[in-house]
Amino acid sequence: MSAGGEFESLEEILERHVPEAQLSEVKRILFGKEITKLLLPEEAIETAKECNFELKGYGFEAAPEQLRLPRKIRVGLIQNHIVLPTYAPILDQINAIHQRVGQMVEVAAMCDVNIICLQETWTMPFAFCTREKAPWTEFAESAEEGNTTRFCQELAKKYNMVIVSPILEREKLHNTIWNTAVVISNSGNVLGKTRKNHIPRIGDFNESTYYMEGDTGHTVFQTVFGKIAVNICYGRHHPLNWFMYSINGAEIIFNPSATVGALSEPMWPIEARNAAIANHCFTCAINRVGTETFKNEFTSGDGKKARNDFGHFYGSSYVAAPDGSRTPGLSRTRDGLLVVEMDLNLNRQISDIWSFKMTGRYAEYAEELSKAVQRDFKPNIVKEE
Amino acid sequence: MSAGGEFESLEEILERHVPEAQLSEVKRILFGKEITKLLLPEEAIETAKECNFELKGYGFEAAPEQLRLPRKIRVGLIQNHIVLPTYAPILDQINAIHQRVGQMVEVAAMCDVNIICLQETWTMPFAFCTREKAPWTEFAESAEEGNTTRFCQELAKKYNMVIVSPILEREKLHNTIWNTAVVISNSGNVLGKTRKNHIPRIGDFNESTYYMEGDTGHTVFQTVFGKIAVNICYGRHHPLNWFMYSINGAEIIFNPSATVGALSEPMWPIEARNAAIANHCFTCAINRVGTETFKNEFTSGDGKKARNDFGHFYGSSYVAAPDGSRTPGLSRTRDGLLVVEMDLNLNRQISDIWSFKMTGRYAEYAEELSKAVQRDFKPNIVKEE
């Protein structure tokens, strides 16, 4: 248990208690094919220790081929607490998180990470539970020219790294706010942005108080390291969302998220992993950590007393591979950087074995779904006469 | 370990070794909300023991509502070995399995099961790995008038039970063979049939040697106990398949399967469970057990020596609920009957909380998918200029 009474890590409990003789079978059934641990540079390990964040590295291998070279790249996932209290001046809060995440990106660079993804709305507390507009909308920035984008551009250039930077976006022209991931090329240029496609209305937790469903479709970003897409948070519950990114060619789909508590945690290891299997691609699930306390209390439409926090964000960021295997999760309580080496050749290799796209009958689904969304749709239900 | 060297059960290993203090958190993260064990009648427990099969019972509860009565029903899942050797006379093989499964259905009746689902092509060995047409196609029967359907009709009437009977179907008129589930009403009438929508071509394991993709779409069967659908085997890898059954109104989707070995087992706990979450419904995953040995050796296009078996079918049948929780699995090695009580009100309750259908944007997906299946589809890929 951590200081806060939160359970630290499922995988560590299993490693500690399940006898050697059964552990490999337990892990195979739960996590798939055994993956290798990466040897990370001493400097990175030391720096992570000094800066008090967890650093883990794993590698997914692919078989050698005759006509293609391996396409080994390294992906980094960052999960972190907010740094200052939620009532600190906004610019101080942003700068403190920039500094913290900057350290972590530096360690990622030491580990030769090529593409890094930060957590959802990473520059701010996840304040949408409060339903207050002020001061939280002040965290919104321009995707193209905001401070955070400029900060990431510097890092991207310095470290030759693609950075996926999910922020609260302010679109200046109409003052609209979006939940957006900015994709910054390793050249330092903004490659583009992609907006959260599905907006939660879970119980009374309704982010459409702040921003609506994204209008950027299922854009895939061609980077020099591979084709990536970003399925933000609640979109992970929608298999069609993952699917459509894959149909547009994504080799890695990131899922920067912010999710708490008992309701979603058993779903967390299932959804991104199912998407990796079903779409013959890698998926990267990222969740923030910690409990964020707000000055004003709020209720949550759940019959409970007003309170000042939304619950514990349980971290547990992980990467899933198309062959059904996955990395262990990062801690449920600590800041962390997960470095994962993957050979992108694995996607095609698994597709050639399992053939889900070939056997997908998509034309028929397009037709069925087109009928199903008509107002006069009659479901195909057989009854006894 | 079982006699055959196969690992018996993930859940039992965890129960045995993880300390009490951590076990509930481990189980919550892995399996979701704690579910209740059903008290099953002594007679059923005794008979299962005498007949040497595992009997387990669990219950998923829902909250009481003011305007709807609970809709509690009991579902039964049966997993079993073949009974006689694969070289025994065909009619003897079928009769022996009928007798065995008949015993198990009787125990299900003692447990007040309302709907039971048998495993894929339950009357026969899963001989499609041999690629021999004879004698295996002789196992095919008429869905409407075959011996197996008649056998199930008797059971259905006798026990007032809906029976989902997945068989190898022979369509007489054109001599075509299908992989079909026959749904028999508790009245004893054949309510209808539904054919396997996605046919595996995994490595060299190509069932389209025997039967092609089904032509029955996504039929849902309205029984007196609830609306059910059957997603046969390999269709579980296709999220669109589960989805379309749900769109047609399915409250419970059965997934009778036959799957072996290292490649699929880590996917097994993920796919049906993801479908239950994503579609706000119950899913029931059923896999046969045992290693089936054939007279003639065959290769599997995997560079290995010719052999006489396809590998170990690992059982592990389970039920998943829309709230992300699931039952433990049946054994990896033994015949078994899983009895699960579920309040179907849970589906709507979870849908009202999580709202995946409301937030699904299906009209937009219908449009995107319709474009994606066109020959001139241009994927939405952004590149640096």
Short description, anyone?
Chains A, B: Its EC number is 3.5.1.6. The structure is a homodimer of 385-residue chains. Chain A has helices spanning 10-17, 20-31, 42-50, 90-110, 147-159, 239-247, 261-264, 268-279, 345-354, 362-372, and strands spanning 36-37, 54-60, 72-79, 115-117, 162-171, 176-184, 190-195, 201-202, 205-206, 220-223, 226-230, 252-257, 282-287, 289-298, 307-314, 318-320, 336-343, 381-383.
CATH superfamily of chain A: Carbon-nitrogen hydrolase
Order of helices and strands of chain A: HHEHEEHEHEEEEEEEHEHHEEEEEHHE
Q: Please bin the fraction of helical residues of chain A.
A: 25-40%
How many domain regions of chain A? 1
How much beta of chain A, percentage-wise?
Answer: 25-35%
The overall pLDDT average of chain A reads 96
Q: How many strands in all of chain A?
A: 18
Assigned CATH architecture of chain A: 4-Layer Sandwich
Query: C-alpha Rg of chain A, in Å?
Result: 21 Å
